[in-house]
Write a structure and sequence with these properties.
The complex is a heterodimer of chains A (219) and B (222). With 219 residues, chain A is mainly alpha-helical. Chain A has one domain. Helices cover 85% and strands 0% of the residues of chain A. Chain A is built from ten helices and no strands. The two termini of chain A are 22 Å apart. The mean pLDDT of chain A is 92. Chain B is an alpha/beta fold and 222 residues long. Chain B has a domain of 151 residues: P-loop containing nucleotide triphosphate hydrolases (Rossmann fold), CATH 3.40.50. Chain B is 32% helix and 27% strand. Chain B contains seven helices and ten strands. In chain B, helix 3 runs parallel beside helix 5 and helix 4 crosses helix 5. Chain B is globular. In chain B, 50% of the residues are buried. The mean pLDDT of chain B is 93. The chains are: A mainly alpha (219), B alpha/beta (222). Chains A and B meet through helix 1 and helix 5 of A and helix 2, strand 6 and helix 3 of B.
Chain lengths: 219, 222
């Protein structure tokens, strides 16, 4: 059942791939605007680069997460699947995994933008990708749940960030800290503990949100 | 095919806000029977079908499908029932074939039936076109194929003739007859009384969320 749900999600994402480009441009534009706020001070830009990367990814995520339920609500397609009956948990994890993949790709695509704009290069690319993947997991699990909750309300674009942002603060902090240590250097070898903390938050989000999804989508 | 998937509704009620869409609906339908549901707009026909299909929960009373309660045994009811709803349940950005394949995948069935069903509803030549390019009638045909793919024991058809051309009307009649021959219990809500009466065994007239009349479909005054 999970395979069927994931296959459907990937197919839907592939069909709306132009939107990924739009979200990437939005994220890159956000990174550019953040650099204006700091000014042309190379050291400061490098210092804040991790925070800016995650802010850019966070803002972009609200677009992709909200959009991921648009197709489900258009013709009540999700209701149709639930009545088959499809397993709500499989539907949730299918969508959350697809959102996670999209956010991870987006994060990886934003790395070169960050390097160019903030001179924030690193040789620890695999570690950086791991942190982005774990951080994206921390955004996508609760983000998918809240996107489902707000999908049917009129002001969903406002409501989704209002609900989501407070919840993901711990994961966001751990992601920023770990990314910052990877870019700026980690003399005390702290990055591992931040990654463990991030993975722990992910485990909590992914298990709890999967349990709650059925309550959200069923009347 | 289990022909015993009858439907029992007892004092079924459902409200939207302060308005009761279903006030007090009780009826029994034997397994394998075809019931025509009639009534003016807003009389509760769609709400009744959606409640039986477990798409909405009743606010009062109870309903059982094939002996399963629509609230407490929702999953069992869903395995028996297929709903043709006003909403098409389709993904606009996917093709007709992909839409049906998704349903087959979620049901754990092979995709081999998909092509045959698309031909059956007259969409064989448009199988690989995205649904966004379809007319309302074509979407209705595809939704019909979706219902047939489920091989339901209870088919709930909400306005099956809606948006269809005359050829489509014949398709609906043929499908209802085939479902009946297979022992499937069918309820269809419609305003096409004369046409529907020829396929149905029984008729139920709803008015303001209540049963106004119940009798044989052949007795329906046109």
């Amino acid at each position: 059942m999970l395979t069927a749900a994931l296959r459907k999600e990937l197919l839907l994402q592939w069909r709306s791939r132009a939107q990924f480009m739009a979200v990437f441009v939005f994220g890159a534009a956000a990174l550019l605007l953040f650099s204006f706020a700091v000014g042309p001070v190379a050291e400061l830009l490098r210092q804040f680069s991790a925070g800016f990367l995650w802010l850019g990814l966070l803002l972009s995520s609200t677009l992709t997460l909200a959009e991921s339920f648009h197709a489900e609500m258009e013709n009540r397609a999700m209701e149709g699947l639930l009545l088959l009956p499809a397993n709500p948990r499989a539907l949730y994890y299918g969508k959350a995994i697809a959102n996670w993949l999209q956010l991870t790709l987006l994060g990886i695509a934003l790395i070169p933008v960050m390097v160019v704009l903030y001179d924030a290069g690193t040789t620890r690319i695999p570690m950086l990708i791991l942190v982005i993947a774990l951080g994206a997991a921390g955004l996508s699990a609760p983000g998918t749940l809240y996107a489902a909750m707000t999908a049917q309300v009129r002001s969903k674009q406002t409501l989704l960030p209002l609900l989501l942002f407070p919840l993901i603060v711990p994961a966001l902090l751990a992601s920023v800290k770990a990314t910052s240590l990877i870019i700026l250097g980690d003399p005390m070898n702290q990055v591992r503990s931040w990654i463990v903390l991030l993975a722990s938050f992910d485990a909590i989000y992914w298990s709890l949100c999967g349990l709650l999804f059925e309550k959200v989508v069923e009347e | 095919m289990d022909a015993s998937a009858g439907i029992e509704a007892q004092n079924l009620a459902r409200r939207y806000g302060r308005r009761w869409a279903l006030a007090d609906v009780s009826f029994n339908l034997a397994g394998g029977a075809v019931l025509m549901l009639a009534g003016p707009n807003g009389s509760g026909k769609s709400t009744l079908l959606r409640t039986i299909a477990t798409a909405v929960r009743p606010d009062g009373g109870s309903a059982r499908v094939g002996g399963f309660d629509v609230v407490t045994e929702r999953e069992d009811v869903r395995k028996l029932v297929a709903l043709l709803s006003h909403a098409s349940y389709l993904y606009d950005s996917l093709t007709a074939r992909e839409n049906l394949s998704i349903v087959a995948d979620h049901l754990g069935r092979p995709r081999t039936n998909v092509a045959g069903l698309l031909d059956r509803v007259g969409l064989g030549r448009r199988a690989d076109d995205v649904v966004a390019t379809f007319s309302a009638g074509m979407r209705k045909r595809l939704s019909f194929a979706r219902v047939l793919l489920q091989e339901p024991r209870v088919a709930l058809l909400d306005e099956p003739y809606g948006q269809l051309d005359p050829e489509g009307f014949d398709l609906v009649d043929d499908v209802v007859r085939e479902l009946k021959a297979d022992g499937t219990t069918v309820i269809f809500a419609t305003h096409q009384l004369e046409r529907a009466a020829s396929s149905a065994d029984e008729a139920l007239l709803l008015e303001a969320g209540r049963v106004a009349w119940r009798g044989k479909a052949s007795e329906v005054a046109v």
